[in-house]
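Appendix C reproduces, verbatim, an entry submitted by the partner laboratory led by Prof. M.T., so that reviewers can inspect both the input and the predicted structure.
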Amino acid sequence: MEAPVFEEIDPASDCDCPGCRHWRRVLPHSPAGRAPAHPAAHRALIVATATATAAVTGALGAGQAAAAPTTVHASHRPGDPAADEPDTPQGPRAPLHGPTGTPAAPPAGAEPAAITRTEIIDRARTWVTAKVPYSMTAYWSDGYRQDCSGYVSMAWKLPTNEWTGSLGTFADRITKEELQPGDILLFHNAADPQKGSHVVIFGGWTDATRTAYTAYEQTPPHTRTQATPYAYWSDSAKYLPYRYKGVTAGASTAAGAPAAPDPASAPAPASHGVAGYPGRAMFRPGADNPYVTRLGRQLVRKGFGKHYTTGPGPRWGEADRRGVEAFQRAQGWRGGAADGHPGPETWRRLFS
């Protein structure tokens, strides 16, 4: 009789049951390729092996063997065809750095901390750049829980980790037409918060028809930003737009320092004597700002948007450059005057 083969199975990384929490603390990290599973799988394996051993002993080599069932967590991401709803369970309301952290709730009646739209998006991008892993129990180095509601708490610079059931108390309901970068789209399933509840940060429209937008979200396997159909891939009608009560138009500054204009919501300053023109630096390769979106939308309105496949967005790209070049050539310009980079005269004519 062959000796039974035992396979080690790691506890599921996203399960918050006592068993998984215990085994995550005491087991070493698994090598790549081992499938995570709930501790129930270990129990099933032990029971099944014992049953199989007894059966073999009783049958005296009758050839019968019992298979060990395993229960492995399935995972999927929002927007995948195989996923009807986002697999983003979330942790409860908690202090920064988790239950062991120091509560930092503001006094009753205190005004929400002020933050600009630019700051919200900049903070959201820090997790995108770091590719913060999704977890409803882990906390990133900044103290915020690594799930969807913890991500919004971080971007809004809230003093605590909130959840989808409490984020709405820090915000006001708005309409689709009022959405601006830094607002959120929130779905809270009150009947079963762990089933479908999710929240994303609105980063701006990607097309002139406002059918898609740039979403910043925390979802397995890590933070991401991508063009997303309005209001979301699934349960679209249940996602509601909200605006943080502490959002301001001006850039946040140190005490006593003058506030600078926020380009996401304030008119652009005049450059080269042309009102609204923000300067050439806003349209260089790699630029990512609201002026690029504004330029692209105006190109579409003027009939020079054929190079866009998903619509204008905040990141400067070849579609923007080719649209500007087509507009410049329509003015009769050639050579360096029609290089696809908007100068002050291009801007003045485009927005006249």
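Residues 330 and 338 are 9 Å apart (CA to CA). Additional entries are available on request from the coordinating office.
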